[in-house]
Amino acid sequence: MPWICPCGKRNANDRASCESCGNQLAEVRETAKFIWPVPPHMMDSGERQPAQVVKRKANPLTLALIGLIVLLVLVLVSVSSSDNRQKTATRGPAAAPNAGTTPTPQNPNTPVSAQEAVVKESAAAALTQPEQPSVPADEGAVVSLLEQCKRRYDAAPNEFQKSTLRRERMAELGRIMTGRTAVGWIGTIAKMETNGSGNGILEVHPPGYNWITIETMPFGGTTIPAGSVMYEQVSRLSVRSKVIFSGEFVESSRDYLQELSLTEAGSMDEPEFLFKFTEIRSATAGDSRPKVEEAHSEATEGVIREGGPIPFVGCPSDGQVGPRNIPSSSSPTVPVDLQLTQRLAYYKADLGPGVLAPRGWYCVGTYGSSGDALYVSPEPIAGDIIVGANARGFMGAAIEISRLYGGTSGRFGVARVIARVFPAHRAFVTRVVDEGIVPAVDFPFGPYPLDKLTYRGNEIVEYQTPARAEGLGTDSWLKKNDTPIDGAAILVGENPDLLYVCVRLPADLNDLTALIIRQAEREASGK
User: Fold this and answer.
1) How far is CA 408 from CA 61, 104, 413, 414, 496, in A?
2) CB-based contact 488:475 (threshold 8 Å)
C-alpha cells in the first residue's frame, strides 16, 4: 500500500525512507497521529483500501496532566454544588410539605447559621409590618410642584424671575387644588401643642418633605377645640406619628393656599400652609377615606333623649366682601338618641345657621346682602356646583340650609316661598309685588302639585318633593334625581326671614333625615 510522506511524496509501503526527502517512514509512523493513505481519487481501483490508523505510544507525562485536570474539574464541581445549596437556604423558608406527609422534625440542638436567622427575622417582620397607605394623587401633585418650584426659585438669577415663579406656583396650585380640600392625605406629626385656651395646635409634614409644613395657628379658627372628638383623637397620637388627615386649606389671594412665611424666600423654600383639620388618625388605622359609622338607630319622635357630644365642624365660607374665618365654637346641645351621636356632626360657617349632617362630609358657606347658606356633601364641593348662573348643583346626596333676609334683597326669595306654602302671610307677597321691581308672575300662588306638605303651625311647613319632580326641594341647589328631597320652610320674625332646609341622604342614612330637620326647627325657634 502506498504511503504519502509529510513532504507530500508518494512512497511504496515497503520502503523504510522517503524517496524524496529521506525521512524514515518508520519514524513518521511513530510521531504522526495519522498517516493518511493516498486519497481514493488518486488511487488505482486495486489500491482502494480503508485508511490505516497508526496508534501513538502513550506518554506518561500526558497521562499525569490529564489526571490532574480531571481532579481539578471534580473539585470545582463539588465547590459549585456546595454554593448552590447555600444559596437555596438563603431564599427563605422551604415550601410547605405536601398534604398527607409529615415533615421531618429538626433537632432543637442543631445550631442555626446567623444568615438563616436574619432571613427568618426579616420574613417575620414582613408578615407583621402593617400595610402603609399610599399618598393620594392630589397630595403627590402638590408636593411635587412645591419641590420643583423650590429648585427653580433657588436657581433663578434675579428677583424678577423669583417673583414670577411664586405667581406661577399660585396658578398651578389653583389647578391642582380645586376647592382647597384635602382628603386622606398622609403625613407625620411634627408638633403638638395647646394655646392659652387649651385648644390644640398641630403641624404635619408630608412624608419625606420636612421643609413643607401644614399647620394650624395658635389663635383663630384653625385650632382644634379642646374637648372635641378630634381633640381626643389627636391626644392619642404623638410627635413623629404617621397620620391620615383631612380638612381645608385657608384661601389666599397671593399663594392660593394661605402661606404664613414673612418673606418670599421662606414661602418658596420652607412653605407653611394654614390648614383647618376636620379629621386625623393613625396611618395604621385603615384606608384614607373618612368613614360614616354603620350603627343604626330606631329613634322616633318622642323617643329622642340626650346623647353624647356632637363634634363641631367649622366650615370655610366666602361671599360679598371676601372669605370669612373658619369658626371654632362648640356645638349646641342637641337632643339625639344615644346611638346617633357617633354618626352625626354639627357643621357651621362663620355666618348663618348650622346644621346636623353625617360625619366625615364636606362643607362650604356663602353669604351676601340677601342672606347666607351652608352646603354639606359627602363629596368635595367645587365652586361650579353653587356659584354662577350656570352652576350645576348637587346631583347626589347633599344638605342645604339657607337664611333669606325679608328686609333686604332676600325678600324676593322669601315672597316666592310664602306664595307657595304660607297663605297666612300673603300680605308680604303683595307688598313685594307692589314695589314693581319683579313682576307678579314670578310669585305663583299655591303649592307645587306633587309636593307633600305637613304644617306645624302658620310659620313652619315640612315638605317632601318626590323623585324626578319639581317642588320646594328643587328650589335649591339640589337637582332632581331618583331620590326624594325632604326639608322644611320656616318663617322667623315679624318682617319674616326665611330659614330653608333641603335634605337628601344616601339610603343607608335616611333615618337621620327627620332629626336633621327637627334640629333646624328647634334652632329657628330659639330652643
Assistant:
1) 120, 90, 10, 10, 11
2) no
Task: Give the β-pairing of 242-249 and 497-504.
Answer: unpaired
Q: Could you report the per-residue pLDDT of 393-438, keeping only the tens digit for each?
A: 999 999 999 999 999 999 999 999 999 999 999 999 999 999 999 9
Give me the residue label for grid cell 392660593: 256
**Sequence ranges of the domains in the chain:** 3-47, 137-282, 312-524
What cell does 15 get? 520502503
- Look-up: residue for cell 349646641? 332
Cα separation, 344 vs 509, whole angstroms: 10
| pLDDT tens-digit series, residues 249-261 | 998 888 999 998 8
C-alpha cell at 113: 447559621
d(CA 146, CA 269) in angstroms, rounded, equals 9
* Segment 148-174, tens digit of pLDDT: 999 999 999 999 999 999 999 999 998
Domain 137-282: what homologous superfamily? Nucleic acid-binding proteins (2.40.50.140)
CB atoms within 10 A of CB 432: 22
Q: Which helix (H) or strand (E) holds 249?
A: strand 242-249
Cell 331620590 identifies what position?
Answer: 483
Q: Cell numbers for 460, please give them.
A: 313652619
* Residue 354 grid coordinates: 348650622
